[in-house]
Amino acid sequence: MKVIVPIKQVYDPATVRVSRSRGILDTREAALIMNPADRYPLEEALTLKEEAGAHVVAVTMGPAEAEDMLREALAMGVDEAVLLADEAFSSADASAAVMIVGEAINEIGDYDLILTGYRATGDGTGEFAPRLAQYLGVPQILRASRLQVGDGKVAARRRVSSGYAMWEAPLPAVVSVDEGANKPRHPSLPGSIAAYEERVVSVWGVKDLGMTPEAIAESTRTDVRNSYAAPERERGRVLRSEPEQAARELLQELKARGLIES
Amino acid sequence: MDFTFEKKHELLRRTVRDYAQQVIAPRTAEIEETHAIPVDLRQEMAELGFFGVPFPTEYGGAGAGEIGYCILMEELMQGNPSVAVLVGAHTSIGATAIHLDGSDGLKQKYLPPLCRGEQIAAYALTEPNAGSDAASITLSAVREGDSYILDGSKIWITNGGDAEIFSVFAVTDKALGYRGGHTAFVVEKGFPGFSLGTIDEKMGIVGSSTAELVFDGCRVPAENVIGQVGMGFLTAMRTLDHGRHGLGAGCLGGAQEVLNACLEYSKYRQQFGVPIAQKQAIQFMIADIITEIEALRSLVYRVAWLADSRRPYRQLGGICKLFGSEVLARAVDKGVQIHGALGYMRDYPMEQMYRDARITEIFEGTNEIQRVVIAMEAFRRLGVRVEP
Description:
The structure holds 2 protein chains of 2 kinds. By secondary structure, chain A is an alpha/beta fold. Chain A is about 30% helix and about 25% strand. The N and C termini of chain A lie far apart (about 75 Å).
């Protein structure tokens, strides 16, 4: 069984500052970490490795620095790591990213299961898994937990408003694993050292995927017109007098502002 | 000159830090209450490879060297000092004695289970009348056929009650004394004639086991001699030399933990209508802690780098232990003061940090002995011989 886990490097939200004056996120001093939601599909895949001998491949599209995240995945126990890094990938949007990762998955080939996080810290749209399933033409189960793999199919539980629903899909399939679906493991200490001393991260560019920069540019359809910080809320006024007096003051204030008729 | 850490060490630090903060630190109340490291915690740490960090991969270690080991100790100390001492005494003295001077056979037999954390090691040198004066040990070892028979006792042995494997120093020739008459042995907990004596109650690091070891006609196979017969004192000293920067690294982590607590507390504790962070009296204490931490950090990793690049580090290692433990002592003292009465209360962490810190000025060579050794070395270079 081969399980492919697309993961993503994101900024650690605790280290990102909001620059209100420039309307952007200031990431100059931000730390890069593995998308927290991606630890759940990794754990699921590594459990399948332990229990069913699955071969686990982690793949990511990103800058050269994303290699460090892949090495962390190797330290946790994945068998292979592939970094998709190319100048042509740098402006890819969600649609183009799916095409790039999708082609990489086809290149890796012979997969039974693709496990993803349910969303990425950052834009948090959660559209990667459904788009990827669509691109690859395979079934999908989203935000799943309690995965059971066998007999050519995957069964999993999804939360619905009234409780849980069990879903089943034939393999190969894309499953996005829900937050809290398992207890993600810590990398081992010898694994952390070996990840740099002994292990290999394959780096694939646009040519390795049989793609062209033009095709990627063409499938990038997002056009960012503007970005701005949400306006800061005006600081409220607290009326500290006795309740009756405070009510009177409130009424007066509301009338004065013309918010209610006098 | 380049002061940056290698990527492998950065990942190791992140891995240990996450585990120490997320998994170990929350067990502190339990460790304080039970005076023991929870079995499941030790088990999981063993599976993650916490017990063989500096040793080569051929013995099942992580091959992270002394820099990696110092990172481990620095971060573990911030998780829980008793856990740091368990790993520290096991690794840097208990197992190191075997790794430094043991035969290939001994290393092949004992290091892999020690690195996997299936067995815990301890280093047994101290006796009632041989503390700083380690040359005065009296535990006797007499050859009998293919074995040695050990008689006597060791006291205050860190990890004593937790360990399965002991590096023990005994007298094989009383007349020769420490110059040719002391020998190191690997003793298993299950050897006939070996037993645990008193388990000591301590001021701090209460989760770490400190015990008396009793040898009553304890039979040890001759192949369990570490190094050569008669060279035990050298093994004992070389092992201690090797452990000192790790201890300094632990002190670095401890001081950092104190600093973090002080910064956090000063930020919200209000007096005279402002957070005490606004008061110069507090700022000066915090600035002093930070300054000493930074000096210690440079020292710790310089010694670790010297050790990893096989350059002499003996004297600097002693300086590292001495300075580190005193930086930590000054930090906890200021830390309690900054926290005021709260720093003195059992329910808050500063009180424990204060108690846990005190041992670092005493064990693995008292600070007085460190000072003597540092001075001895300085005079030796001038051709002047100074006796401790």
